[in-house]
Structure formats: C-alpha cells, structure tokens
Amino acid sequence: MVGVGPRRQPSRKGSTADMPHDLLGEIKRLEDLFSVDTAKLKAITEHFISELAKGLSKEGGSIPMNPTWCMSFPTGHEQGTFLALDMGGTNLRVCEIILPEEKGEFDIIQSKYRMPEELKTGTADELWGYVADCLQQFIEYHHEGEKLGNLPLGFTFSYPASQDYIDNGVLQRWTKGFDIDGVEGEDVVPQFEAALKERGVPIKLTALINDTTGTLIASNYTDDEMRVGCIFGTGCNAAYMEHAGEVPKLAHMNLPADQEIAINCEWGAFDNEHKILPRTPYDVIIDKDSPRPGQQTFEKMIAGLYLGEIFRLVLVDLHSQPHVQIFPNQDISALQKPYSLDASFLSDIENDPFENLQETHDSFDSKLGIKTTKPELELIRRLTELIGTRAARLSACGVAAICKKKGYTTAHVGADGSVFNKYPHFKARGAQALKEILDWDKDRDGKKLGRGRDPIEILPAEDGSGVGAALIAALTIKRVQQGHNVGVRDPAGILAGCGPAK
C-alpha cells in the first residue's frame, strides 16, 4: 500500500521554487493585499471597542448592540421541561429540552420539518399556520394522550428584529429568501400565538431570542467560564453580558447600574464607515454588487457567504491581466458566475492531502471545466490560505474587543457556525491572532508562556437555538416569579400554566 505522506501544512517552503515570475509576483501582491499584521489587528480592535460603546450609547452607531432582555446567566440548576423552536431558512426544528436536577445537564428530543419554498413568498397566515401545525404534530407524537398545561417555548427567530420585551419582536426585514407581506414592521408574536390558539396548541411563547444570544447562554450553562457567544458561519455575530450602567440608551429604564443584560451585537455592521478595515479592491466589488451596499462591512470580509466569492473574483481578475499567465486560452465562463463557489470549495483546497494538489486539480476540472498547471495550483492554494487566514485574524479582533471592553483577562468564548467548525485552521489562526492582539507571547516576568495556557480560549459552543432558547425561557419564568418584570410584555401570561421553573 502506497501512502500519500503527511498532510500538508498551511504553507510549504520550496513549493514555489519552479513558479514562473508572473505568478510569483502575483502571489507577493496577494500576500501584501490580504495579510493583516499585528499592529493593524491592534488598531482594528481599539476602533472596535469604541464602536461597541457607541452602539450602546443614545446616539447609536453602525453596530446595533441590541438589548435582548435576557437578564442573567444560568446558575446550572434550572429545572423543568421546555420547548424550543428554531425557524431557519431551510428547516424548522422543534426541540423538547428537559433540565434535570444535575447541574449543567440536559436531555433533548428533537424533530426537523422541511420549510416549503412556497411558504417563503406566501401569506403570513400560511407561514404561522405551518409552524403551529409542526408544533402540534411534535406534541401529539411525544405526548399522546397526555393532558398538558401551557408548555413554555423559547423561539429562536434569527431575522433582524427589534425588541422592547423578551416576549415580543418587531421584524425589521426578511432575510434567508423570505418575502411575506404583512410581517415586516409588525410584532411577530401575536401572529404566531393566534395560529397556536386557533389550533388549540398548548404552548406559551416565553422568550423570542437570537441564536447568538442562545449560544452565549447555552455555553455558559455547561461551562461557567463562558463570557461571549459567537457565530462564525454564513454570517457572523456575537453576544455578551453588559452592565446596564454601561448602556446609556437604557438610562430611561432606571435599571440598577450593575444589572446584567445580554447584548446581541450584530457586529457584522462594524466599520460600515470604512475607517479601519483593510479592504481590498475585491471587497469593494463584493459590497458594490451586494443587495445592500454599504452595510455589513465586517461580515463581507469574514463570513462564509463571501469567502468563495472573494476567491472567485481574484481568479477572474488574474485571468483578465495580460501579463499574468493563469488559465490561458481556456473557457472560464463557469468561474465568471457570481457566488458559484462557496466556502466549502476553499475548505477542500486547504484540506487537499496530496503533494501535487491532485484533488484541487480534479475539482477545478469537474466543477469549472478548467485544466490547472502545478504553478497555478500553488497560487490557488496560497490564495485560499490568505483568504481563510484573514477571516480568522479579523474575527479575533471582535472577540478581543469585547474582552478588553469588559476587562476579561481570562475567559472562554463559545463559538458556533460552519466556518468555525469546518474551515481548516480557522481556530488555530484565530487563537494566534488573539495572542498577538493581547500580547500573550510573554508573561509579566518576561518568560515565554507555555502551550495550552491561553488566558482567553475560543471553544466549540453548545446548541444555542435549542438548549439556549429553552434556558432563556426558564430564566424568564424564574425572573417573573421573583417579581422582576422589566423587559417582559406579558408576565401574567408567561406564568399562566407554565409550572415552576426552579
């Protein structure tokens, strides 16, 4: 049996030894364009801190910093049975979460239901009717013949929504392919509850949450060192606990200054003013050609939706340059189709285990109809490294900004999303950037820190849209039982029939 040798490292010495000068020059240009050094990382982080504070102020800013009305971390001793509903663009997921007496433990039963495409452009009644039908099926299957009181529900509604209360949410705009009249600008909760009531489904919506807030709470439930929840996937976002005294835009609520409240940052909008992020000409094109130019600047540089498109734009540009011999005399029409390559295409290139990059050669041939030479493959490989590394290093700036703003010298950060979980080297590259930003290379005595001693670690997160939603429902009931009704629209309704949340 012939082995393929060791897996390739993120880059190799000597891999460009026989490369033509035109391609070597382009690699150097791309390295200069996409590399972000330590000094730039630190400058971005400092600007990020000021923008986080601005979002919490009365004036606001590009980063919304939305108060979620989730007012505490879990203790780990929450108990009870809760439902969780996660309405995504493709699937609807219904979970039953049982929180037992054991600290930080949970049991979960779940079912997935396909979200029919026709619903996305149908009517509001059809949408909420379908969601209520799925909930009814779930309850009837798992609780056949049982007489139930109102089961408390945490609803993960990951669409842009403003919240004056934890049990309401006004949809700002549809995303993920939805375009249903009569919902934008409206509180979605009464519409949803009307469909439940019509069918006699014994459920009481207790908390409407964002998946990032759920990630924060679920991760802290199993690890009390968790202080930040992040999503690095198709999009990007973060949530953390802030003291009310640091949120001037909530001053009218007269909350105690030390009262904690979870903040949903929506940090994809960082640097919409284009003051600090090192945008390339390719980033400018992506923004200009997007449905909402000038918005989500940070997201367009680090999120999975855009990584493949940055890669594609670079290759199309190189092919168009007469002095660069890349894919000469070949039909690149498949490569010229916008958003035809996704982040998984780049992941596969970075994961190619063969010294001659045979898998990458075959992918270009089968997917794009392009025959690649060895020098072209080396450039392609280096380009994926540069794009993936830049995304990971920039993502660390947001994490570092929250930790510096809060004064965290040690903490765990829970991260979820396809890019964090699946993109090669993303975790290691982000950890390295955090070290550089926060100066962990040496300890106070000037001695080198050993491996595995990072004060702030980014770790895989718990299920925010399931366990997190259930926990926030439990925390809301507990808070209302204790007479703390701030940020709750319908405290009497939440308690009605929900049973004790200990």
TrEMBL record:
Protein's pathway: Carbohydrate degradation; glycolysis; D-glyceraldehyde 3-phosphate and glycerone phosphate from D-glucose: step 1/4; Carbohydrate metabolism; hexose metabolism
GO CC terms, sorted: cytosol; mitochondrion
Keywords: ATP-binding, Glycolysis, Kinase, Nucleotide-binding, Transferase
Superkingdom: Eukaryota
Chain spans, region Disordered: 1-20
Pfam families hit by this protein: Hexokinase_1, Hexokinase_2
Catalyzed reactions per annotation: D-fructose + ATP = D-fructose 6-phosphate + ADP + H(+); a D-hexose + ATP = a D-hexose 6-phosphate + ADP + H(+)
Protein name (database record): Phosphotransferase
Source organism phylogeny: Eukaryota, Fungi, Dikarya, Ascomycota, Pezizomycotina
